[in-house]
């Protein structure tokens, strides 16, 4: 049987998204194709955002928030939300990455997040990310450009077994996790003309930091500049991430698996964005009194404490602006010719602007969408015996009595109702009492906003490895669940209410 189309679409998405910056760009392309209008936080939305409209915005180029406003929206009404994250454990180039040792060119890297670092050895690596480029001459503007070098240029070789007889392999992250990029002799023979030009152009200017050509290998800078279509002298700075050039693909005897980097958490990023887009088609906005929102944050893997992480003001600020959005004065929108039913008395009674934000939070709900652990057949004893999620068995509801996950019984009832109508199977997961438990953006956003929250995610193996394994059928499961939740939340919200 052929894999779901959504699984193939996900492969395209993750292959195009080696960094959070690329993931946000890929998500924005999906949203643009679906008719979503781009907003800027620095602008007033008063004359732009209207009931019946679809919008998105980005922050730092690495976080994205998209929302569709129901045509029956009134200030203070509920907002159905799905939250995910765009980052994954990785290696990032250090600000001064130029290293040489024993005739090799090496690149200094910094570990990001809790990666399984030994999985990065003997892989065909390259770099991707964003560069800041000076446009024009003199005091020109600085613009961001995305770069992705598609050929392998870096490698972290393992030490031969003849020289390392120990059974364990726990490399030192500072000294033994250094990629090789080439041979020093080739670099010495390379013409240094770009460097001389750079020095000549700026010899009368004060330069606060060392020049890029002193901080990074010129050959690496030349590759990055060529990929961006600029001169090396135009690059002011960059943030580059190492990635495995081996593309994500279907695997297994019947294509039941996805073998890929960054399943955690681009799988949920893709499914939430696709679910929002699909919900607008399957459940039009005409009679919806809610707002449907998806937020995908950067920096979850390192605690979310940044200006564009889930622990920032990004989501609260957007919810505050949306909570006081004026309702529609008409009963229909241009998206449908079907007459709409008249607004209810409750919808007519608008809260004052001073309490609309709090009223919206009290009636809203967040699905914290982050990947879950599938049972590992070789390590089954590591799992609680009655909670062993299976790949392609549907999204996993994650529960923890110590609030590492934010799930509770009313939330389970709500999601179960959504899943029943969407015909999506669900699974349950708790960790063993003698095992530590990871966490997500769910508890922090639930505490920050006071919003009802449930943690959920597709099951996978090899979480935080450079190459992870998921189920091809679970992509479609999650898309349909998020589609059903966002499209039907307004109908279900008042039926499952515990004050």
From TrEMBL:
Ranges of compositional bias, category Low complexity: 328-339
Any GO MF annotation of the entry: metalloaminopeptidase activity
Required cofactor(s): Zn(2+)
Keyword list, A-Z: Aminopeptidase, Hydrolase, Metal-binding, Metalloprotease, Protease, Zinc
Gene Ontology annotations for the cellular component aspect, listed alphabetically: fungal-type vacuole
EC primary class: hydrolase
UniProt GO BP: proteolysis
EC nos: 3.4.11.21
Reaction(s) this enzyme catalyzes, per UniProt: Release of an N-terminal aspartate or glutamate from a peptide, with a preference for aspartate
Region described as Disordered: 327-354
Protein family membership: Belongs to the peptidase M18 family.
PANTHER family (alphabetical): ASPARTYL AMINOPEPTIDASE
Designated name of the protein: aspartyl aminopeptidase
The species this protein was found in: Parathielavia hyrcaniae
């Amino acid at each position: 049987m052929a894999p779901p189309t959504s699984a193939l679409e996900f492969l395209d998405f993750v292959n195009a998204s080696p960094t959070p910056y690329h993931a946000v760009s890929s998500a924005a392309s999906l949203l643009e194709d679906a008719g979503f209008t781009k907003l800027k936080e620095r602008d007033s939305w008063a004359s732009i955002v209207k009931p019946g409209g679809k919008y998105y915005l980005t922050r730092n180029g690495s976080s994205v928030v998209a929302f569709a406003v129901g045509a029956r929206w009134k200030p203070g009404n509920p907002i159905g939300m799905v939250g995910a994250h765009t980052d994954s454990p990785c290696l990032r180039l250090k600000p001064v990455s130029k290293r040489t040792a024993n005739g090799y060119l090496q690149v200094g890297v910094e570990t990001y997040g809790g990666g399984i670092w030994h999985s990065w050895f003997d892989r065909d690596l390259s770099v991707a990310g964003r560069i800041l480029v000076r446009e024009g001459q003199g005091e020109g503007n600085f613009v961001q450009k995305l770069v992705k070098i598609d050929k392998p240029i870096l490698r972290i070789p393992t030490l031969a077994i003849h020289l390392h007889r120990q059974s364990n392999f726990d490399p030192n992250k500072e000294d033994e996790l250094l990629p090789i990029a080439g041979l020093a002799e080739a670099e010495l023979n390379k013409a240094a003309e770009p460097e001389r030009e750079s020095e000549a152009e700026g010899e009368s200017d004060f330069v606060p930091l060392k020049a890029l050509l002193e901080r990074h290998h010129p050959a690496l800078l030349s590759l990055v500049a060529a990929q961006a279509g600029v001169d090396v002298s135009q690059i002011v700075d960059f943030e580059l991430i190492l990635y495995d050039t081996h593309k994500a693909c279907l695997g297994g005897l019947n294509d039941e698996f996805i073998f890929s980097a960054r399943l955690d958490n681009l799988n949920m990023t893709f499914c939430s964005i696709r679910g929002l887009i699909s919900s607008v088609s399957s459940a039009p906005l005409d009679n919806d009194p809610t707002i449907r929102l998806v937020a995908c944050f950067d920096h979850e893997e390192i605690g979310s404490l940044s200006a564009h992480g889930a622990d920032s003001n990004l989501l609260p600020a957007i919810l505050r602006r949306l909570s006081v959005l004026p309702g529609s004065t008409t009963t229909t929108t241009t998206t449908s010719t079907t007459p709409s039913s008249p607004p209810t008395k409750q919808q007519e009674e608008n809260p004052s602007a001073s309490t609309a934000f709090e009223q919206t939070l009290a009636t809203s709900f967040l699905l914290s969408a982050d990947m879950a652990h599938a049972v590992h057949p070789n390590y089954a004893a590591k799992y609680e015996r009655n909670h062993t999620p299976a790949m392609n068995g549907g999204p996993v509801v994650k529960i923890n009595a110590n609030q590492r996950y934010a799930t509770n019984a009313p939330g389970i009832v709500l999601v179960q109702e959504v899943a029943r109508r969407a015909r999506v199977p669900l699974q349950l997961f708790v960790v063993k009492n003698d095992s530590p438990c990871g966490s997500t953006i769910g508890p922090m956003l639930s505490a920050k906003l006071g919003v009802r929250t449930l943690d959920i995610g597709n099951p996978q193996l090899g979480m935080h490895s450079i190459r992870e394994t998921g189920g091809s059928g679970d992509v479609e499961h999650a898309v349909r669940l998020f589609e059903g939740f966002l499209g039907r939340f307004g109908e279900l919200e008042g039926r499952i209410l515990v004050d």
